Amino acid sequence: MLKHLKLTNIGPADTELEFGKRLNLITGDNGLGKSFLMDIAWWSMTRKWPAEINPKLTSGKKALPRGDGDAKIDFSFTGKSRSVEYISTYARRDEAWTGQQGRPANPGLVIYAMADGGFAVWDPARNYWRTQGGVDVQDRPSAYVFSPTEVWDGLPGTEGNWLCNGLIRDWAGWQKESGTAFKNLCAVLDVLSPDTAEKLLPGELTRISLDDVRDMPTVRMPYGKDVAVMHASSGMRRVIALAYFLVWCWEEHQKAAKLLSEPTTNQVVFLIDEVESHLHPKWQRRIIPALLNVTQSLIAGAEVQLLAVTHSPLVMASVEPRFDEAVDAWFDLDLVAAQSGQQPTVEFKKRPFVRLGDASRWLMSEAFDLGSARSLESELVLQEAAEILSEQEIDHAKAKALDARLRGLLGDTDPFWIRWRYVGEKQGWLR
Prior knowledge:
Blueprint: E1 2-8, E2 15-18, E3 23-28, H1 34-46, H2 50-53, E4 72-78, E5 83-91, E6 96-97, E7 109-113, E8 119-122, E9 130-132, E10 135-137, E11 144-146, H3 148-153, E12 155-156, E13 162-164, H4 167-177, H5 180-191, E14 201-202, E15 218-220, E16 226-228, H6 234-260, E17 267-272, H7 281-298, E18 303-309, H8 313-318, E19 328-336, E20 345-351, H9 359-363, H10 376-389, H11 396-409, H12 416-427
Parallel strand pairs: 3-18, 3-19, 7-17, 17-18
Antiparallel strand pairs: 1-2, 1-4, 4-5, 5-6, 7-8, 8-11, 9-10, 12-13, 14-15, 15-16, 19-20
Helix pairs in contact: 4-5, 5-6, 5-7, 10-11
């Protein structure tokens, strides 16, 4: 479990975070460093940048100092046998982040779902250093990092081998075998479904082209037709890929642990960027609870920590019933206005989680900083109307002109009309 992270001269601003043991939510405007923070979290536990392992990625590049002087990444996490703390500094001549020599600590299974559809996994059974002749040797893959295409078509090795068959081949193979892997996939898809009336169910295998001999998995749509997974909606493909990758990571970890005659890991850290990406609101409302439930049930007995970046007020509202300050945390990035003549600064805060109930209230909370949940035009006109209503003497001509604008923006049942009409009729400029 990732416990602590302190950044000095790296990223938009220096910051220090203490993570919750179970759920960590990260909000903030675009460009303030949320995805960057996820890359740092991944690196802290694996010591490799995603794009360093797979150059096909367009994100996950090595972090660089923000300015002159020392740059440091200070982090700690709970390892397999003990808690560990590291301080890494940036060596400018080597263009690399330094660290302690020798075998690093084992953070457990680390899974990273990137915003663009790429995935990465660090598996203690397959990626950890091995001991040869009493000496620690790092000759295994540093991690498995997938571009979005490789998640579906497979991840090739450097020697003509396959590190992963990919979703299409694995799903088809599991379905033909009808073994534990396919049962787990069906169970995960069921939990990650948008609601009870629209279950994600595997359909019959099919072919989609004369030039593609692969058996193509399908999903059975609510209207009874089977649709090839490649032709499913963006939201469905996002969730299908999440389900597949979770099952694949756990299946391969179990097989590798058995081959090594070692127990499976008892720790899982799951990083997911833009968790609501492509998802309909009814799916956004379910995704975080579903991911916690499915990870804990699939990997029974393991401690699970989830770090999730979100722009969705529905995601924030969805965790209210289960958010526990003792094990969960909410972090928020904000651009803070500076004094005249100075640049704004980025501020990273751990905020107290308050149950606001309604998603529109979350939109207007510190998480998203909107003035209202309305259109921008409506918000501006309502601000003018509020100013008029607060005046002691109201200019009737101005009020009538504003009334005409309000009628073009607000619906007939909008609650604002009650106050507006009451004051207007009382003042005489509405009849």
